[in-house]
Design brief:
The complex is a heterodimer of chains A (about 260) and B (about 260).
Chain A (H helix, E strand, L loop, with lengths): L1 H34 L6 H12 L3 H23 L8 H39 L2 H7 L4 H38 L5 H11 L2 H27 L4 H31 L4
Chain B lengths: L9 E10 L2 E11 L4 E5 L6 H9 L6 E6 L2 E2 L5 H8 L2 E4 L11 H13 L3 H14 L16 H14 L4 E5 L7 H18 L2 E6 L2 H7 L2 E6 L2 E7 L9 H7 L15
Parallel strand pairs in B: 3-8, 3-9, 6-7, 7-8
Antiparallel strand pairs in B: 1-2, 1-4, 4-5, 9-10
Helix pairs in contact in B: 3-4, 3-5, 4-5, 5-6, 6-7
């Protein structure tokens, strides 16, 4: 009966989705539990913080700079039609700190770091290096997953803080040199409406996004199989799933952190 | 727990392992005495590597029993198995060296990470082990990607013996090597195992290697051991499966599996 086949295929997709969610949840719990138990590899955490955080600074900084510049231009273009140009500095600083800084940095982070983690761990998996760790009395979660997840969670807020400053500076450059704002007035209006909570809420978002990006990279890389094709697929899944989760969680966190404040 | 007299070093009883509907190990029985070198031969996809991975704890068996020095391993948690697993060393088919570490740190990895030996002391031990497999101290500073396949296998052998394990598993030790380098590796395996007084389990389909390494040979077919006996008796086994395999004949009772397990 064709209808039975159709329903069976829907059921199979649903069950596979549930199984994948369960595996991901167990992986997350295992990673978190190993974060809290010794041994902690401080040398590896330090190295990952440099690889993941420090070397992402140029790409995140450039993205933030142009985001701030474009935002100032677009806001000016729209707001000047009803004589609200003075709101440009406020819109730029609130948009960058609350929303665009964490989200755009998170997405760039997913492309650069999520892909790199998945490719590295995926290659280690298909060449038996992860199994070799186990045979050498070393827990792969502690040695591979914990340092990356910890470094991702800690360094993305640092990057976003710097990106916030660079993004606001980008808006200031466009405001001062192209849109003919008075530089002192631009800075004054930027500071007038910015609250500490705008920045800290953005940094909280960044911490969550950093955790998600590193976790997705580790999960798909750690569980990859099937040689080079499998590593490629793991990398794609890691970036796509991290990007979607960033956008989804951004809505949830915005609702929690800003609405009804 | 005191070891009962006469207890085999490794005792496998009724071991079962399936992947989906594909039965790989189907009630396999095997015993290896202390200090014995057993080679398991068999065609591709017959379950040799799965057997080795179940014994060393890289895969969970579906059923049956694996006892190491009389201690049951099947059904125990990873934490409970960890102490017993410290008795093992393993040489992987593709060497499985860590790309990100220099050669000496690969060799010393189990000492530094698994047993908390100081780096300087571990490096001295690693250089000794490299010398034991015919590699000079200058090789210790190279990266694995700078080594030939034969040198990588030597480094992997040095890594497997570095912590002086009681049991060493060799998974296809000569695959992908030219005949001369394969003989060098075989010679080194025999020398290292004798020097350590270790128990060795080797997995191979290279009969030259099997004859050189083995005290005893066992043949696996369709997930079971179908013949085992002293290496010297392999040519007079009287078993048509063994005869076909050791004489590399296409015709005979063994039907080649088309799909990989």
């Amino acid at each position: 009966m064709p209808i039975h086949g159709f329903l069976a295929s829907i059921g199979a997709v649903f069950l596979n989705g549930l199984a994948a969610s369960g595996r991901m949840a167990l992986f997350t719990l295992a990673a978190l539990s190993h974060c809290a138990r010794p041994p902690i590899y401080l040398r590896l955490i330090g190295r990952q913080m440099i690889d993941i955080g420090y070397y992402s600074l140029p790409v995140v900084g450039l993205t933030a700079l142009f985001t701030g510049m474009v935002l100032a231009l677009q806001t000016y273009t729209g707001f000047s039609s009803f004589a609200a140009e003075n709101a440009v500095p406020t819109v730029v600083v609130l948009s960058v700190t609350r929303e665009l800084g964490p989200v755009i940095a998170g997405l760039m982070f997913a492309g650069r770091i999520g892909a790199a983690i998945a490719a590295e761990l995926g290659t280690m998996r298909v060449t038996d290096q992860i199994d070799a760790l186990t045979t050498l009395s070393t827990n792969p979660y502690k040695y591979l997953v914990v340092p990356r997840v910890f470094a991702g969670t800690v360094t993305l807020p640092m990057l976003v803080f710097i990106a916030d400053i660079i993004g606001v500076f980008g808006g200031f450059l466009v405001g001062g040199y192209k849109l003919r704002f008075n530089p002192a007035a631009y800075i004054q209006r930027t500071a007038d409406f910015l609250q500490t909570n705008d920045v800290t809420a953005g940094l909280v978002k960044a911490g969550v996004f950093g955790f998600v990006v590193a976790l997705m990279g580790c999960y798909f890389g750690y569980n990859s199989k099937g040689g080079a094709e499998g590593v490629g697929a793991a990398t794609t899944y890691a970036v796509v799933s991290a990007s979607i989760l960033i956008l989804l969680l951004d809505y949830v966190l915005t609702a929690l952190l800003f609405v009804g404040r | 727990m005191p070891k009962p007299a006469g207890t085999p070093k490794i005792a496998v009883r009724g071991l079962r392992k399936s992947f989906g509907r594909k039965v790989v190990l189907d009630g396999l029985d095997l015993e290896i005495g202390a200090g014995e070198s057993l080679v398991v031969i068999g065609g591709s996809g017959t379950g040799k590597s799965v057997l080795a991975k179940c014994i060393i704890g890289l895969m969970q068996a579906d059923g049956g029993s694996i006892k190491i020095d009389g201690e049951e391993m099947v059904g125990r948690s990873a934490g409970e198995r960890e102490r017993v697993m410290r008795k093992f060393g393993m040489l992987f088919q593709g060497a499985a060296l860590f790309d990100s570490l220099p050669v000496w740190e690969n060799v010393a990895f189990g000492l530094i990470q698994g047993r908390n030996v100081a780096r300087a002391e571990a490096k001295a031990t690693a250089l000794d082990k490299l010398a034991q497999v015919g590699l000079g101290p200058e090789v210790g500073e190279l990266r694995p990607s700078e080594l030939s396949g034969g040198m990588q296998k030597r480094v992997a052998l040095a890594r497997a013996i570095c912590a002086e394990p009681e049991i060493i598993i060799f998974d296809e030790p000569t695959t992908g090597l030219d005949p001369i380098m394969a003989d060098v590796i075989n010679h080194l395996i025999v020398a290292c195992v004798r020097q350590l007084g270790a128990t060795a389990l080797s997995i191979t389909h290279d009969m030259v290697s099997a004859r050189k390494i083995a005290d005893r040979i066992a043949m696996i077919y369709k997930g079971r051991i179908i013949w085992s006996g002293p290496a010297a008796e392999i040519d007079h086994s009287g078993n048509p499966f063994v005869e076909q395999f050791i004489h590399a004949r296409a015709e005979g009772p063994i039907q080649m599996e088309v799909r990989a397990t």
